[in-house]
Specification:
Elements (H helix, E strand, L loop, with lengths): L8 H5 L24 E5 L7 E8 L4 E6 L5 E14 L2 E6 L3 E4 L4 E18 L23
């Protein structure tokens, strides 16, 4: 079935985005596991709706306990091992495991003896905007008039 042309000049002027390969995660890790700690790669495409990072935590390193109140996160272990520490216990993580971290959950990541490298993906946070003084007052309900 062929798509119909809407005849809209705006549709013709803006090309549709195209899928593309962004990164070969296998090339981020040097032989022998001597990668530096921290973010090895991050999604930086303009107009995106997602954020993604490849993160390396060295042997016995950790991502401290934190709670993400707003965003669900997918965590895919690419290399190494770790322990995911949650409010209801510990879960071992190894290469190939895909883990859902629901918003509101508390967690920490403890890297294994050879470290861990993982990909995280979540919805992009809206950028911060500077508002004039008193702008937040407009968002509060009028309790006096109720």
């Amino acid at each position: 079935m062929a798509a119909e042309d809407s005849g809209s000049p705006a549709a013709a002027a803006t090309p549709a985005p195209s899928p593309r390969v962004l990164c070969d995660t296998a090339e981020l890790l040097p032989p022998g596991g001597d990668a530096a700690a921290g973010a090895l790669w991050k999604l930086a495409e303009p107009g995106r709706q997602l954020d993604a990072n490849v993160v390396r935590v060295l042997s016995a390193g950790r991502v401290d306990t934190h709670t993400e109140p707003d965003l669900d996160v997918l965590l895919l272990v690419l290399d190494g091992e770790a322990v995911l520490v949650c409010a209801d216990g510990e879960r071992p993580l190894r290469a190939g495991l895909l883990t859902w971290l629901p918003h509101g959950s508390t967690r920490a990541v403890l890297a294994g003896p050879l470290g861990v490298t993982y990909l995280t993906v979540h919805r992009r946070r809206p950028g911060m905007r500077i508002q004039p003084p008193g702008a937040a007052d407009r968002l509060r309900p009028d309790l006096d008039g109720a």
